[in-house]
Amino acid sequence: MNIFIAGGTSGIGYALARHYLDKGYYVGICGRNPGKVSANSFKNLKAFQADVCDLDSIGSAVQSFLKHGKNLDIFINCTGSYAEDVAGKISYEEAEEMLQTNILGTVNCFEIARKAMKGQKKGHIAVIASVSGILDYENSSLYTKTKRSVIQIGDAYRRALKPFGISVTTIAPGYVDTLKLRQLNNNDLSKKPFLTDVEKAVAIIVAAIEMQKKFVIFPTKMKWMMRSLSLLPSFLLNMIMFRKAKWMKDDRP
């Protein structure tokens, strides 16, 4: 089986790559800095430098992985960009990075995977969104809005690609204990509810792909909490989520 993981050089993406390599599959990964991973450590691993915001860049990486007539069985997009703009200001560069990576990058990954799989009449595409994208309210953060867009993009491609035998799974995780999350929070995860370790997250994602599920939210407690919040009036949800953001930044409302 041939699997390509965008954003596979760190975090959940790299953990997924390790899982599939342990099963003896051929795995391609890409990132802006593939030097973080020693491809020579794994017989069936190929690492590429690519930027999902550049269609030609991600396309070239996938084509190189699939040379010699390989099929693309699974494509997983684990890329993402985060900056908090509810309790504090973000720069134009941070906002642009989120919009480019989380929205344009998502579309680019779907397009490259679609083109590779369409002639096969089979294949599976998975995209990592965020549980925060479930909530729809006026003053949600830019990050939340981009991840909500990822969920909607995934649903659109799922419907469009179904007639071609290509299935799509959208994953909306809560907080996963990755190095990136620790770096963003100065190694203090005490304010991250229902934290999931990477191994558990990988098991859930792999199972969702194998069962070709349409949409998966985890952990379960986070799923029900977010769905309960989504039932609140917009003004009340705005207030609660703003205070939550302030609390997480140790600011007083």
Could you characterize what this model shows?
With about 250 residues, this protein is an alpha/beta fold. It has a single domain, classed as NAD(P)-binding Rossmann-like Domain (Rossmann fold), CATH 3.40.50.720. Helices cover about 45% and strands about 15% of the residues. The protein contains eight helices and seven strands, in the order βαββαβαβαβααβαα. The chain has helices spanning about 10-20, 55-65, 90-120, 140-160, 180-185, 200-210, 220-230, 235-250; strands at about 1-5, 25-30, 45-50, 75, 125-130, 165-175, 215-220. The chain is globular, with a radius of gyration of 18 Å. It holds the Pfam family adh_short. Keywords: Membrane, NADP, Oxidoreductase, Transmembrane, Transmembrane helix. InterPro entries: NAD(P)-bd_dom_sf, SDR_fam. This is 3-oxoacyl-ACP reductase.
Any key phrases for this structure?
Rossmann fold, NAD(P)-bd_dom_sf, single chain, alpha/beta, 3-oxoacyl-ACP reductase, NADP, 7 strands, about 250 residues
| Beta-strand proportion | 15-25%
Order of secondary-structure elements? EHEEHEHEHEHHEHH
Instruction: Give the rounded overall mean pLDDT.
Output: 91
Overall tally of domains? 1
The main sheet comes to:
7 strands, parallel
User: Which CATH architecture would you pick?
Assistant: 3-Layer(aba) Sandwich
Q: Specify the CATH homologous superfamily.
A: NAD(P)-binding Rossmann-like Domain
Neighbour order of strands in the largest sheet: 3-2-1-4-5-6-7
The overall strand count is: 7
What structural category characterises the helix and strand content?
alpha/beta
Task: Please report the number of helical segments.
Answer: 8
CATH topology (level 3) name = Rossmann fold
Spatial shape:
globular
Low-pLDDT segments, ≥5 res: none
Q: Helix fraction?
A: 40-55%
CATH class: Alpha Beta
Return Rg in Å: 18 Å
The end-to-end span amounts to 52 Å
